[in-house]
Amino acid sequence: MATKKQDAGSTAIASFIAIVILLPFLIVAIFKYLMLKRSFINNKNVVRIVDITRAFNRIIPGLSIVTIIIIVTYSFHQIYIDQHYSDAILSSTIAVIAFIYILTAWRTASAFASGLIGVVIDSDDATLNFPTDGVLRSFSFNVIMNAIIPASREILTLNRIQTYNRQAGKTLIIHGDFGSRAITFSDKLRRDQLISLISGYRRFSDSEYSGEGDYV
């Protein structure tokens, strides 16, 4: 009986930790999505290419880290009970875990919200607005975090795009005075839809296309 009660208590604690950790992620994701929608979509003449699969793929690294945090937190709780560590060690460990969690949860929620917004072409401003994928990016102080959990968006005016090419089947690489940017989709249909939209606004001629590989 004691063992069953202990197991039930452990399960309750694990469930409580999971709820406490995941609930802020959902709140931040909704908040960020509404902010992005208000900034880039509401009351604007835009065309969106939404890729739900890519949106969920963007949160996998963050959720993996959050899962590890849950396991580590629960394991440390058990060790703390068994070994009777000092309160100072407990406080320091909790502070470190909380900091890593807050950073990871915020960026993961932002990455998910950005993925749900998708790729946006604003015909009024002639701009291309898309979630970054953490590749082919300019170096910055947070380049490592961007590569792990790419939570930002980038806006480019269409007249800055000089040329583009397909890569790896479902990725579009655009080139210009800004360097190179990669926009990846879960299927070729969405990739080619973006190519069509860019071509329509930029009026690319066949000679300006520098694609290699498959052509659909």
Shape: elongated
Low-confidence stretches: 135-143, 204-216
Please compute the radius of gyration using only Cα atoms: 22 Å
The share of residues in helices is: 55-70%
Instruction: Supply the CATH superfamily name.
Output: Pleckstrin-homology domain (PH domain)/Phosphotyrosine-binding domain (PTB)
Question: What is the CATH topology assignment?
Answer: PH-domain like
- Provide the number of structural domains: 1
Report the CATH C-level class.
Answer: Mainly Beta
Oligomer: single chain
- In CATH, the architecture is Roll
Query: What's the arrangement of strands in the largest beta sheet?
Result: 1-2-3-4
Keywords: Membrane, Transmembrane, Transmembrane helix
Transmembrane segments: 12-34, 55-76, 88-106
Brief digest:
The chain is of the alpha+beta class and 216 residues long.
Topology:
Blueprint (H helix, E strand, L loop, with lengths): L1 H39 L5 E4 L2 H6 L2 H24 L3 H31 L1 E4 L4 E5 L11 H6 L4 E5 L3 E7 L3 E6 L2 E6 L3 H15 L14
Antiparallel strand pairs: 1-2, 2-3, 3-4, 5-6, 6-7
Helix pairs in contact: 1-3, 1-4, 3-4
Keywords: Membrane, Transmembrane, Transmembrane helix
What tags apply to this protein structure?
alpha+beta, 17% strand, four-stranded antiparallel sheet, transmembrane helix, PH-domain like, 216 residues
Structure write-up:
This protein is α+β, with helices and mostly antiparallel strands. The chain has a single domain (2-208), classed as PH-domain like (Roll). 56% of the residues lie in helices and 17% in strands. Strands 1-2-3-4 form a 4-stranded antiparallel β-sheet. The protein has a 3-stranded antiparallel β-sheet with strand order 5-6-7, covered by helices on one side. Strand 5 and strand 6 (171-176) form a beta hairpin. Helix 3 (60-83) runs antiparallel to helix 4 (87-117). The longest helix is centred in the first third of the chain and has 39 residues, at 2-40. The chain is elongated and about 70 Å long. 24% of the residues are buried. Residues 135-143 and 204-216 have low confidence and may be disordered.
